[in-house]
Specification:
The chain has 128 residues and is of the alpha/beta class. The chain is 35% helix and 20% strand. It has a 5-stranded parallel beta sheet, with helices on both faces.
């Protein structure tokens, strides 16, 4: 059973080019009482007005066009203070260090452990 967030539910922006992944994440986040919104590319997400209070982003590292690794820097350039949690389907030794250097608050490998992801979202949005 997924841990349910408090009454001030967080907004989570899902950025992934893989539609089934977006659908599964939205289902998980809704079941935990969160407010998910999904985008099929970093550019689509960056082009939208988003709420930054009590919110975070979950983004795939590898996507066509702008990668998830570029997203923390692009958000900072635009003055958007949103924590970014990265996902990767590729098991590389340098991925954690690369994600940290990019400004991500966490990195998970797909398939993601549901509770670990929900815990990371709660931690990332706790003071946002």
């Amino acid at each position: 059973m997924a841990h349910v967030m408090g009454s001030r539910s967080a907004t989570v922006y899902i950025v992934d080019d893989d539609r089934p992944v977006r659908v599964a994440l939205k289902r998980l986040l809704r079941s935990a009482g969160l407010k998910p919104f999904d985008f099929d590319s970093c550019q689509a997400f960056l082009d939208c007005d988003v709420v930054a209070s009590r919110a975070c982003v979950i983004a795939d590292i590898r996507m066509p066009g702008t990668s998830g690794l570029e997203l923390p820097g692009l958000l900072a350039e635009r003055g958007r203070d949103l924590p970014v949690i990265l996902l990767s389907a590729y098991d590389r030794d340098d991925a954690v260090e690369e994600a940290k250097l990019a400004g991500a608050v966490a990195l998970f490998r797909k398939p993601v452990d549901d509770q670990a992801l929900l815990d990371a979202i709660e931690w990332a949005t706790r003071n946002a």
